Amino acid sequence: MAEENKNLPVEENESKNFIHQFIDEDIAEGGRFQGMAVHTRFPPEPNGYLHIGHCKALCIDFGTAEKYSGLCNLRMDDTNPTKEDVEYVQAIQEDIHWLGFDWDDRFFYASDYFEQMYQCAESLIEKGLAYVCELSPEQFKEYRGDVNVPARSPYRDRPVQESLELFRRMRAGEFPNGAMTLRAKIDLASGNFNMRDPVIYRINHMHHHRQGDKWCIYPMYDFAHPIEDALEGITHSLCSLEFEDHRPLYDWVIANCGLPAAPRQIEFARLGINYTVMSKRKLRALVEDGRVSGWDDPRMPTLCGLRRRGYTPASIRNFCERIGVAKASSTVEFAFLEHCLREDLNETARRVMAVIRPVKLTITNYPVGQSETFAVENNPNRPEDGTRLITFSRELYVEAEDFLETPVPKYKRLFPGGPECRLKGAYLITCTGCRRDEAGNLVEILAEYDPDSRGGNPADGRKVKGATIHWVDAATAVDAECRLYDNLFTDPAPDGADKNFLECLNPDSLEVVTGCKVEAGLKAAAAPASFQFMRVGYFCLDSRDSTPERLVFNRSVSLKDSFKK
């Protein structure tokens, strides 16, 4: 149960959310944002697909705005044209809408501010707070210094006019990549290396997905981001913990660029999950090397992959809410994410019967050619979902694992001379034998039924000692393919610094089972419908490959909960 989970309940997390505490102080009487609406932003770089790690930031940014009846912008941080693409822009928008968030008309691109950023850079040069540096990348590393040795640059005292002229020539495209950079003049001896005259512009002769070839110099993130926030009137710039040491630079840019607003940066710990990687570079490698079928492979931690696997927006948002907001980094069990999905689907998913590894069951005393129907409930948790009719006849399909010719101790399923078993919603049966082919393979289970046990309840009220068996009618069953997924990695920490994540891949992360048998009614189902296959797991129709003529189901999560509450 949710309340038994080792993670804090939502209400407790909210009471301890330090971000909300800071905001409460800021908007209170005498606070820096007194009388102002809380305004946040979600600024992904469009160089890949959003993954579960982004969800925490997404839920914090949009969720905080919702809590304070404020605003949240969506901004594409497209300041680096190297790997950015319109494909990712569209995918990011789709994923955010799928989670249930919206930005209304506040959709921006960082590249729309390039001219303002350039003017800010010129103003810093004119104030003597920036200079053009000609150190090569190798020299830059050599001159960086260490905790006891200040950084240095022979260009730091370059005259203002000379830097200004060179910077304008950089913009005009007169110099090759790497020839020059523009650096902020702050403090070469700072203990915070981010403040040791950081680079704020570099040359990059590359086509931009929106700006075309208009620009060949591009601002660095640490320079661009505070300007973007200020121009959009952001009050609280919420970002992950790795930017904590960058906050002094964020504030320095705000203070020295004459911007119309002064946002407050607040950092929180990133989301880490075991048995996965969340580096865009590594995820891209999995896709480009053909280790997975694409960004939306159901084994991927991308939102489009999770969606294709059958994860629901409610389960993901619940997951993010329940792990809370913290300052210290930690790793969450992937099993907890599965737990949240299982909770949601247990309440909402329609129950159906499907046989993954079928073997024929023949009820030898059932009349040949006879057929009847049974009404079974769609979801015991939702009586309003009603019932459906399923057919029953002499020949059925059951799971091969529900039969043992020579049973092990305490085995309560089908075996010759074994106990009565209940066919879910239908009749009681007793196994009488089986048939095998010449190779010894099981091809048919034989049984007899009690005609006075319709609905699975014996007329004399006797106790049924055997198990309840799920089944499908052989006369009406539909063929299907089921894809059974496991963790993509065998190592709980494949992203460790001392590991090659590719060597941690799980060779058994996907099992494709064909020839499965499912209820006839599933032929009319449409993605992204989710179902509980009774006694098997939660499955959804594959949004890419499934058709009415070829049903393909993805196992979203097993029935058994492995999360230790």
Verbal overview:
This protein is α/β, with parallel strands linked by helices. The chain has three domains: 232 residues, HUPs (Rossmann fold, 3-Layer(aba) Sandwich); 150 residues, Ribosomal Protein L25, Chain P (Beta Barrel); 117 residues, Ribosomal Protein L25, Chain P (Beta Barrel), CATH 2.40.240.10. Helices cover 25% and strands 24% of the residues. The chain has 13 helices and 27 strands. The strands form seven sheets. It has a seven-stranded mixed beta sheet, covered by helices on one side. A seven-stranded mixed beta sheet has the order 21-18-19-20-14-17-22, with no helix packed on it. Strand 8, helix 9 and strand 9 form a beta-alpha-beta unit. It starts with 9 loop residues before the first helix and ends in a 7-residue tail after the last strand.
Provide the low-confidence segments as ranges: 1-15
Mean of residue pLDDT? Answer: 93
Can you give the helix content as a percent range? 10-25%
Strand order of the largest sheet: 12-25-26-27-23-24-13
Tell me the CATH superfamily of the largest domain. Answer: HUPs
Shape: elongated
> Would you report the number of β strands?
27
CATH class of the largest domain: Alpha Beta
* Percentage of residues in DSSP E strands: 15-25%
Return the domain count. 3
Assign the CATH architecture of the largest domain.
Answer: 3-Layer(aba) Sandwich
